[in-house]
Amino acid sequence: MSLPFYIVDVFADKKYAGNQLAVFMDAENLSSEQMQQIAHEINFAESTFVTKLDRENNKAEIKIFTPAHEMQFAGHPIIGTSWVLMNKVFENSPNEIKLKVPIGEIPIHQTEDLIWLKAAQPKFWDVFSKEDFTLFSNLQVSDFENQFPIQEVTTGSAFVMVPLSSKRALENLVLDKDKADKWMKQHCKTDHRGLYFYYFEGSKVMSRLLYIEHNQLLEDAATGSASTCLQASLLKYNTKEIDLINYQGDFINRPSQIYFKGKLVDDQYDINIGGKAQFIAKGEWEA
Questions:
Q1: How far apart (Å, rounded) are the C-alpha atoms in residues 72 and 219?
Q2: Superfamily for 2-119+276-286?
Q3: Does 284 participate in catalysis according to the annotation?
Q4: Which catalytic residues are annotated (predicted)?
Q5: Is the pTM here over 0.90, yes or no?
């Protein structure tokens, strides 16, 4: 079986930055096991598989896999897949499409060169102590920002939001893999576990996502799903309206820009993240 595929860099202002994504077309006859094998083989942070395509109504259904497991929702795969569909697949190059993922249908629109998605309503889970983090990192209690809680948040995929008080603390961050893994397994509510460290200053945020997969401590270049959780946190604890850029990936030489535009009105969150995508390659995959 031959599958057409595309490779794009997502949340990137230029090629060879942001987060890599492989988008596999015509995947309706693949099993989940086969998709997982392909995602493991290409070994990007995530790969997507288009399992249904409605060209007439500009709709598609996709499944999302990391090298280790399936995701229910993930930002950079949705943004990147949408760019491919809007610019390479759908004949009329639409500015709006609907993309269905396991958590439901995601409205997508393109404004100039930015692809935007609207996130689901967030859920705010457990709050954790700063002292916990000093046990498995090089952080001191003074390295944490007091305005925001350390809290697990989800808009479909869950992450622990960890606010830091300086760029220095973010840049110099070191985790003990085994101790961090043990803590996450004890405290995180889902199997997809990640720690989203961030430093908020004025009109921008700098962030780092650290997680463990296949017994390795890894860092993600750009994490859209965690960014929706961060935007929710900022709206809840700081401001009722937000318009800024989240800079991620700088410390692993994959600079990324994730655009935030959201507001909180009457306990309803309007969370939108946007980003650019850079076309890298296309080909045929022998499945």
A1: 20
A2: Diaminopimelate Epimerase; Chain A, domain 1 (3.10.310.10)
A3: no
A4: 46
A5: yes
